[in-house]
Amino acid sequence: GENVEQHPSTLSVQEGDSAVIKCTYSDSASNYFPWYKQELGKGPQLIIDIRSNVGEKKDQRIAVTLNKTAKHFSLHITETQPEDSAVYFCAASWNTGNQFYFGTGTSLTVIP
Amino acid sequence: EADIYQTPRYLVIGTGKKITLECSQTMGHDKMYWYQQDPGMELHLIHYSYGVNSTEKGDLSSESTVSRIRTEHFPLTLESARPSHTSQYLCASSDPHGTETNEKLFFGSGTQLSVL
Description:
The complex is a heterodimer. By secondary structure, chain A is mainly β.
């Protein structure tokens, strides 16, 4: 099965700086890569996703890049704000309706 | 905002009790999931369902059971709770049909279970 690794497990940045979280996957058949944000006491919420036919996708301050050859994808948050503090999960899936494989999570702290 | 609801939000019970965690979604999604989340954050799939009358075990072995009698409802039951069952339980749903955007997973807010 698929194996998704996520780094770092914790990340602290100053407000206004950028944050980068990286994930690698093992199954070359994976073709859908969502990112979830989990705030304290809440369930994970989808913030951005990318499919294997695209190398980069951006939505305001967040962007995701995908390198299919190297089997890794990254989340980039620019101009971080205290409300970006949360746990972020990457995931991989290889077919519509198939199982999602999650990374182990990154706890991001944005220091005001 | 996703329309998937979990009750209760918090539950503290004694060892040996039978409990049922409720999960309902109003999006008409066929596929539903239960994840167990460690204090260390990692998500483990314990059960999933492709639709009514379908239930499958996930990657993580669990002593819980699930049922899927209605599309919108996917309850999880522990016949005899133990302290090792203390965890956060997250329910999710997705629609595997239609356009590619339907792959998205929607999560409920979770149930924090503590077994004393």
